[in-house]
Amino acid sequence: MERAVTDLAAASLVPAPADFAGPAPAISLERAADVAQREALLDLAFGRAARFGKTSERLREGRKPAEGLAFAAHGADGRVVGTLRLWHVTAGPARPALLLGPLAVHPWFRDRGLGKAMMITAINEATRLGHGAILLVGDAPYYARFGFEQRLADGLWLPGAFERSRFLGLELKSGALEGARGLVSPTGDFLAVPSLDELIARESVPAALKRSA
Length: 213
Ligand SMILES: CC(C)(COP(=O)(O)OP(=O)(O)OC[C@H]1O[C@@H](n2cnc3c(N)ncnc32)[C@H](O)[C@@H]1OP(=O)(O)O)[C@@H](O)C(=O)NCCC(=O)NCCS
Description:
By secondary structure, the protein is of the alpha+beta class. The chain has a single domain (about 1-210), classed as Gcn5-related N-acetyltransferase (GNAT) (Aminopeptidase, 3-Layer(aba) Sandwich), CATH 3.40.630.30. The protein is about 30% helix and about 25% strand. It is built from seven helices and eight strands. The protein has helices at about 1-10, 35-45, 50-55, 115-130, 140-145, 195-205, 205-210; strands at about 25-30, 70-75, 80-90, 95-105, 135, 155, 165-170, 180-185. Strands 1, 2, 3, 4, 5, 6, 7 and 8 form an eight-stranded mixed β-sheet that branches. Strand 4 (about 95-105), helix 4 (about 115-130) and strand 5 form a beta-alpha-beta unit. The chain is globular, with a radius of gyration of 19 Å. Coenzyme A (COA) binds near residues 104, 105, 111 and 138.
């Protein structure tokens, strides 16, 4: 696993070989084993400090993504080359919605339709699961092709600085964002965090016992 993550980052520092091709990456639900490579890909795409500083991150931190709406794309060798996740939020009081992002595709695999395929997969699956609307902060020229519009998020704001022109919405059910007004807040389940007692107990287990466990 360590090796693969290092390789992934290193691979982006040089251009893809001229004859680089291969089968299209396969999109599936993210697995626990994908996490380290997903994080490396996001660091590569956005920069570690920058991505954790984003206002959207305030709606994701400490939360689980929405059930069935965390996707990974794997290249032919099994490495993660694309990631996209959606999160539960409320778009103002009592108006459930999803927050989409981050979306990232490894530089070697860009401009081949993978980002589009991941977006369409996510939108279709969110629709199938009965969700009403998706919000995101991103480049409007990219997301407009999937139907995202700034006007649908006009009455909403985020818990931090954001550019209004990059704050976009998409209705999966007609009228789902009509009249939406207020602060977007996270509503997803919390990630399990070990209690202080558990952390202390772990630290006090003798190393020999840990090795044999
Ligand atoms: C944005 C990103 C996910 C697109 O992935 P991709 O697999 O290359 O996307 P696709 O192949 O489906 O689409 C490529 C098209 O989108 C366009 N595009 C890519 N990024 C764009 C952007 N930020 N704004 C506008 N258009 C963009 C490309 O020019 C190309 O246009 P074309 O179809 O007219 O040739 C990828 O470039 C990436 O990971 N970027 C870094 C992370 C990032 O910025 N993510 C969020 C975007 S706000």
